[in-house]
């Protein structure tokens, strides 16, 4: 009798949990592994920093068939997101397939099977655990898996004198920075979130920003939720996609003056609302630049704290060295010659897209010569069998994007997808990565960050599935955010189709 296909999923965040729910519903034998003691991924209690909230409102930062609680605020806290994912586990009975506190040390590919042999250890004790063999591996460890902390010159002497260098996620409570001189390195959301909260308790708070980014207020004019401008098909259409179609051709052709006027109007409103001229924090370049890196939501109270003097932003510079001042205190010198006291240096300097459990040989087969992930639809490597990626399509709708990628994986494993030949897929992926590289000046998180083209990615995945939400819904999405319940119905159809399409066995 054929044996049920066993799927191993590495990661218990949005991508891993939605993959587990979908694949299990389709009839696969599923196990989920995560080194953290709880579910949540970046929202785990081991990784949250003070002041952490979602960038999206609760109605768009959720999985399609499991809305966030009505009593949650518009932008839930990190703790609330983790609790939401706990409730997802409970609702869909996933607890019995979770191996938390279990690190995958190495995933070895047996191409003869094909299968994967997972070498495991207990994260708390470090003790080895019995190997686990799975027929297919889903990598859902997240593109924000490992915080990047720069190797500052002089860090050794600095720390020996009592200074501390850490990532934002290492600041688990404010006692660590209370009454201290704190430098926050970076200008993304995590850096500004942390700076705003730290400024409540620190002796001084300075932000070191190598480059200023355009920030998006939660509500334009303190009235209109930003989602009605940027989380719609129209908002996305303001930025040129690799192949514009339909109305987008007009926006980037004859209608370009209209499009430019819309972006200019939004930029002027942001400049006034966030007091950027008053604080001398107007970024270089036009608002359109947000399509070349990432969109960062403005932190509540951050600019007010700058006006009040509680946060000092040093723009267009960086730390050149850490040292010990003549009075024995830890300090930092900036590229412009400024010297600042620095008891704690908190780095909100981004993340590395690491997959430490894959061998260099396998990793080389899933990446291109520049180290970008060469994945068809951000999911499927070209020539590594029994391997897919989920959540490697980070977007404005990251939970939904990951969930739809999970549907795609289920359909692929069920034999429901008619994919182009490998040679054609390779050409498409290479062309897309080249476009991303040029469009973002290399800031595409090794090909995993698809902002601002969230809906395009969703459309492409659904097109492969032969699915969609219908023309009336698509038309409505030009002027309002995506409706998650509408996509939940699509997911039900995909899962039902996978259940009847095969035995899911070897």
Number of domains: 2
What's the CATH H-level homologous superfamily of the largest domain? FAD/NAD(P)-binding domain
The rounded distance between the terminal residues' Cα atoms is 10 Å
Q: Give Rg in angstroms.
A: 23 Å
Structural class, by secondary structure, is alpha/beta
Average pLDDT confidence is 93
Q: Which architecture of the largest domain does the CATH hierarchy give at level 2?
A: 3-Layer(bba) Sandwich
- Number of alpha- plus pi-helical segments: 15
CATH topology of the largest domain: FAD/NAD(P)-binding domain
Find the count of extended strands (DSSP E, 2+ residues).
24
Percent helix among the residues?
A: 25-40%
User: What portion of residues belong to β-strands?
Assistant: 15-25%
Gross morphology is globular
* Low-pLDDT windows of residues: none
| Strand order, largest beta sheet | 3-2-1-7-24
Output the CATH class name of the largest domain.
Answer: Alpha Beta
Largest sheet: 5 strands, parallel
Short account of what is shown:
This protein is an alpha/beta fold. The chain contains 15 helices and 24 strands.
Characterise the protein shown here.
The chain has 506 residues and is α/β, with parallel strands linked by helices. It folds into two domains: 6-145 and 353-501, FAD/NAD(P)-binding domain; 147-217 and 274-351, FAD/NAD(P)-binding domain (3-Layer(bba) Sandwich). The protein is 31% helix and 19% strand. The model has no long low-confidence stretch (mean pLDDT 93).
């Amino acid at each position: 009798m054929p044996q049920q296909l066993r799927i191993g999923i590495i990661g218990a965040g949005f991508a891993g949990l939605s993959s587990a729910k979908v694949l299990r519903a389709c009839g696969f034998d599923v196990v989920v592994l995560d080194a953290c003691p709880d579910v949540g991924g970046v929202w785990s209690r081991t990784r949250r920093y003070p002041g952490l909230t979602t960038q999206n409102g609760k109605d768009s930062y959720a999985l399609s068939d499991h809305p966030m609680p009505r009593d949650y605020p518009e932008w839930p806290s990190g703790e609330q997101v983790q609790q939401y994912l706990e409730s997802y586990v409970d609702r869909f009975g996933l607890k019995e397939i979770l191996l938390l506190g279990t690190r995958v040390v190495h995933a070895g590919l047996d191409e003869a099977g094909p299968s994967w042999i997972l070498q495991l250890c207990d994260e708390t004790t470090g003790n080895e655990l019995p190997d686990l063999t799975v027929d297919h591996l889903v990598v859902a460890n997240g593109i924000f898996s490992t915080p990047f902390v720069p190797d500052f010159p002089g860090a050794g002497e600095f720390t020996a004198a009592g200074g501390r260098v850490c990532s934002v996620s290492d600041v688990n409570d404010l006692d660590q920075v209370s009454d201290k001189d704190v430098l926050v390195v970076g200008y993304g959301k995590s850096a500004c979130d942390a700076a705003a909260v730290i400024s409540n308790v620190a002796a001084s708070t300075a932000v070191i920003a190598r480059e200023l980014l355009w920030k998006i207020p939660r509500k334009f004019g303190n009235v209109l939720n930003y989602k009605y401008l940027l989380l719609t098909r129209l908002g996305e259409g303001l930025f040129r996609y690799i192949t514009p179609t339909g109305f987008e051709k007009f926006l980037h052709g004859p209608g370009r003056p209209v499009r430019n006027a819309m972006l200019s109007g939004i930029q002027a409103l942001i400049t006034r609302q966030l007091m950027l001229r008053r604080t001398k924090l107007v970024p270089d370049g036009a608002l359109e630049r947000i399509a070349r890196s990432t969109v960062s939501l403005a932190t509540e109270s951050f600019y007010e704290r700058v006006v009040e003097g509680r946060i000092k932003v040093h723009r267009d510079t960086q730390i050149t060295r850490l040292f010990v001042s003549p009075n024995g205190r830890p300090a930092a010198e900036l590229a412009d010659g400024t010297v600042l006291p620095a008891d704690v240096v908190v780095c909100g300097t981004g993340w590395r897209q690491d997959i430490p459990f894959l061998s260099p040989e396998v990793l080389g087969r899933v990446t291109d010569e520049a180290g970008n992930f060469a994945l068809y639809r951000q999911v499927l490597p070209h020539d590594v069998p029994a391997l897919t990626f989920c959540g490697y399509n980070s977007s404005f709708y990251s939970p939904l994007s990951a969930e739809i990628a999970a549907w795609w994986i289920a359909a692929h494993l069920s034999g429901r997808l008619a994919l182009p030949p490998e040679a054609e897929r390779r050409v498409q992926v290479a062309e897309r990565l080249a476009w991303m590289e040029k469009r973002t000046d290399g800031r595409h998180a090794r090909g995993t960050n698809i902002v601002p083209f969230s809906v395009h990615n969703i459309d492409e995945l659904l097109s492969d599935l032969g699915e969609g939400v219908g023309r009336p819904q698509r038309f409505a999405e030009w002027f309002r955010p995506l409706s998650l319940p509408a996509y939940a119905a699509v997911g039900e159809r995909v899962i039902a189709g996978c259940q009847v399409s095969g035995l899911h066995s070897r």
